[in-house]
Amino acid sequence: MLVLAIDTATLTLSVALAEVEGASVRILEERFVGPPRTHSDALPAELLSLLAAHGRTFPEVNGLVVGLGPGSFTGLRIGLATAKGLAYGRKIPLAGASSLHAMATVAAQSAPEGARLCACIDARRHQVYAAIYRVENGAARVEVPEAPYAPDALAAQLGQSNTELPLWLFGDGVEAHADVFASIPHRSNGGPRTPSAAGLAHLAAPSLGPYDAASVLALEPTYLRGFDTR
User: Fold this and answer.
1) Domain range 2-98+195-218, CATH architecture
2) Which residues, 6+ apart, have CB-to-CB distance to 200 below 8 Å?
3) Is the pTM of this model over 0.90?
4) Which CATH architecture fits 100-181?
5) For the chain, which residues make up each domain, given as ranges?
6) When you count CB atoms within 10 A of the terminal residue's CB, does the N or C end of the chain come out lower?
7) What is the arithmetic mean of pLDDT over 80-94?
């Protein structure tokens, strides 16, 4: 099965092309495209360019995966609308997954067993979106569900719980509030700084089933807070 994965939760677009056979996912290529290009401008061209680089065309794509956030209201709507349109048009299955969980899935591939993973992206308004995961058998298992945090509140929570375990804290939210997180012993280069389409493919592509219009229609983004146009 040839699968395209898309994430538009932040200002950095991520797209990936993967070959999927059962639970096995092989990433052919992942690309990141940042500002000043917008998602509405970059996404269609990057998908076509990615396929062409591997000698493929869209009719050969058998499934789609899209990041559901949390993240930018506008970005998430663009990504989900594009994925739904392609799925409806081609009658191929579409699956959605957490953009933060996708980041943790990438980190779990190199983190030690039992490590805590905190994926943290900048939500602006002096907040971050974050979730905490535990590495179990090479996968990222949810320990604390995703939520919006004031940076100092997240730092306090991380500093108080499971301090005997290694902590990998990563994402552009860590960079945006480096002064707040500096006092917590952690590894900051153990995961991606923005959501990863390759992580989405590993996380959700094996669950793709037959095309079902109702399930495609039912997919909705995760905002975690009120309307935000960034």
Assistant:
1) 2-Layer Sandwich (3.30)
2) 5, 6, 7, 16, 65, 66, 67, 97, 99, 102, 105
3) yes
4) 2-Layer Sandwich (3.30)
5) 2-98+195-218, 100-181
6) C
7) 97
